[in-house]
Design brief:
With 519 residues, this protein is α/β, with parallel strands linked by helices. A hairpin with a 2-residue loop joins β9 (134-136) and β10 (139-142). The relative contact order is 0.10.
Length: 519
Amino acid sequence: MTTKCLFPEQFTIFTKLLKNRIIQIRRPTIEENVRLETYSEGRLKGTIANFDSGKRILTVSSGIPNDNSFDEVLFTPDGIFLPTESDYNKSKNRVRWQKPSPLNVESFAQEDWNNLCLEVRRSWENQFSFVEEVREKEAVVSRGLRPPQIGALYATLAHWKVSSEAGTVVLPTGTGKTETMLALLAHQRFERLLVIVPTDTLRDQISRKFLSFGLLKYFGVIGESSKFPIVGIIEHRFQNKNDVQRFFSCCNVVVSTMAVISRCSEEVQKAIGEFSSHLFIDEAHHIKAPTWEKFRNFFSSKTILQFTATPFRADKKKIDGKIIFNYPLHKSQKEGYFKKIEFWPIHEFNPLKEDEEIATRAIERLENDLANGFDHIILARADKISRAEKLLAVYKTLCIKFNPQLFHSKKRHFEKRTSMELLNSRESRVIICVDMFGEGFDFPQLKIAAFHDLHKGLGITLQFVGRFTRTSGNIGNASVIANVENVSVDESIKELYAEDSDWNSILRFISEKTSDKLV
């Protein structure tokens, strides 16, 4: 009898340099059907996973077995294998591979790092294929690059053949923006790519995608013999040019937030431009123009590509850089990358009551969706930390059973990590956030958007709502809840339709009265 077990990712490199992480994956997380048997050696107890290929993996809670015949040895809290991703997320900080272990890089000279990075890039040669997704009606018959990804790739490659101007790729949320970045990296074999993102949460998320090449190996877009990139993750600023050179020379890809970069001295920012071969800006509409313009000057001779779901900044100004590809929103919805959005309006004239009314309707939608078998989560948006803290109290009063969690930029790292573990395990199904969680965050189960505070700019509203339209597994249509008696909501929805008529085919108003009023 076989049992499906999850085997967590293995690392070739897992270290810190100048307080910042450098990681390379040997093998990503996999799930396999294996035959299990118990293991006992003196006081050492564990479980053996037997593969059809003959490979044997031992799991123990502690200690090192004397038997060296096992191909791999994994430490878990109870010495048993983890059957699901949810189980792994609950205990991932206490799970590690004893065999094979990461390389001991502490004694590495710069030449050793250079050789490792070169070896990785050489492994990408002739390993990229333009494998396209095949669909019959709405069903995916064969996995591969989606139409918007294929279009963005060809448009970018064509742009680079004829121009050195910064380019902008506009891809609606959920169409596979990050995989497009990964495809360009592997196809072009960049010497050293710098990726700038707006938030810490997105930095961690996109770093994981670069570490594993996302889904591209699984789809056959990138060959199996290709090595995974060595990824540097900047969380702490550098002090001088030598620090930048030392860190960047160890990486194929470096990921950072603009906030960390902007706190670095001009000397350091200039060095970052010098030691990067290419620059990708993710969620480009978030970067403030003065900050971006100053940093961009250090990349005047380098290739720059911006990615966004909307070409407008929060201040309603258009993003600079030539738009080289813009995939229509209506095509994304027609091709099944967007779920329908149901707008559930609240009619509350009393500002003192509107938060409770919005929260109550959001909880009703969640309970209804769960009863219908959908794996959904509420995201309640506030525009300030003080507002979010008040909303947390409201949701705790109304639905303590869903264990509401608060996310904002001032929360400590371990607090964010704990909250994320609760969300991943579904011990929590309510998030109260201040911008930084919702935008740019890939979490398809976010399906109920409670707008306690609306975004000021239309472009940001489009981007935020788009987060709730992703398709994946057992999830249904998205629900958006807002108080239409709030003037800013009324005007934003009017503007939404005036700016982009594609939303007529995506946003469905539950109340006909509201529809007549606003459309």
